[in-house]
Amino acid sequence: MIISWKIIVAPITIITLWVLLSIHIFQSNDVDLLEISIFIVSFFLGGFLFYTAYLESRQRQALQLMADNLRTLNETLESRVSERTEDMFRAKIHTDAIIESLTLGLIEYRGDHTVVRLNRAAEDMLGVKRETITGKQLLPADMSKQELSSLGEVTFFTSTEAFPKQKKGNPYEATIDEVSIDYPTRRDLQVITVLLPTAEAGHGLEHNFIKLVRDVTREKLVEKSKSNFITVAAHQLRTPLSAIRWAINLIISDSSRLTPDQISILQSGAKATEQVVTLINDLLDASQIEEGRFGYEFTSGNLADAIRAATTPFTSKAAEKPVTLEVKVPEENPAVTFDQKKLGMVIQNLLTNALTYTPAQGHVGVTLEYGDRFATVTIADTGVGIPADESMRIFTKFFRSKKALVMETSGSGLGLYIAKNIVERHGGHINLESQENRGTIVSFTVPLHAEDIPEE
């Protein structure tokens, strides 16, 4: 500890003055006022110097303690920063290793199409080398270059068009699309596009994008083979089944020579035959959708009339359960371009599900509303609903909910798949919201203007 000079000077000064004044006073019989004043001043001056020296010493000790604490804190902080840096470095190594080992191709790029990262799988699929493209901006003109054509096809596709179609509540929801490329080999790719939030995104700068690319060429070939088999088998089955159905209905129509038991058996057979024929028709429709042969005839018509025509056959079925079937359409309806037969199929598939899985005394409602660019058709029921863990699979082929299987064992699981494809071919979007034991709401949109219908 450094001793302040005031602590040394103060007592020396006081003692010196006192000694001098004491000698003078003892040697002199007369003590004047000046001498007394000097003695008093020297006393207080010494006390003041000693006190300030004491305070300064305490302050020095406090500052020294603070400096020691700051030094310890700094060393601790440096240690933690070093540990955190090492953790981040290890995490980066792990992340890079995972990305490199992915069988999916991964491409990261900025909003201006500057490539940030590619992994090895993406290089192999798209026929590019990361050292030649990383950090460079892709331009539309690069699509004409063979070595960049596949990369451009994947990155330019959906990067600006897909995200406005996402749900408003989740701007980072991924979109899934399929593209075909010819370089370096002919491939069918499934492309998952994810909007990547960045630190600069909140300041009005561009977001980054990540593309996950999966080679589905083999899956497409397998699906095509299965589709061809289903088509051939369905065609071969439909003709004899139609003949059987016709024969059974002919016998039932002349039931005067039949017993009640025979009539009941024939009616059960006719119902089973009808179910199989319906299943075969659904299989053929799904096969034609996959092969792009599900022909459409778009004409201008009244959407409200099409809804009335599609719902009329279900009136008697609703009354039998009984379930209330309510249809609400506007009185004034603009002309809309759509395929009346195919859209009627969508409404019938959705109504079949709603009436089948809504218990007696329930309610099914069909409404039509017009917006600026789209008409929205909504079918809501008070049925058994769909469990939350099954909602993501509801539009896939052959999927049927566990609750649906309990209530109705027959069914192809193709109705919603077909409906989804028909709606999307019209340029619309279908959405399903459901709560278990409370009901389901299915809504789909149809563009009001013919120019919004996608080309074949």
Q: What is the average of the pLDDT values?
A: 83
- The CATH topology of the largest domain is Heat Shock Protein 90
Q: Number of helix segments?
A: 12
What's the CATH C level of the largest domain? Answer: Alpha Beta
Which segments are poorly predicted (pLDDT under 50) over 5 or more consecutive residues?
Answer: 159-169
List the helices and strands in order: HHEEHHHEEEHHEHHEEHEEHHEE
- The total beta strand count reads 12
| CATH level-four homologous superfamily name of the largest domain | Histidine kinase-like ATPase, C-terminal domain
Distance between the termini: 90 Å
Number of domains: 4
List the strand order in the largest sheet: 2-1-5-4-3
Question: Which oligomeric form is depicted?
Answer: single chain
Radius of gyration: 42 Å
Structural class: alpha+beta
**Main β sheet profile:** 5 strands, antiparallel
* Helicity level: 40-55%
InterPro entries: BphY/WalK/GraS-like (IPR050351), HATPase_C_sf (IPR036890), HATPase_dom (IPR003594), His_kinase_dom (IPR005467), HisK_dim/P_dom (IPR003661), HisK_dim/P_sf (IPR036097), PAS-like_dom_sf (IPR035965), Sig_transdc_His_kin-like_C (IPR004358)
Protein name: histidine kinase
Catalytic activity: ATP + protein L-histidine = ADP + protein N-phospho-L-histidine
Domain Histidine kinase: 232-450
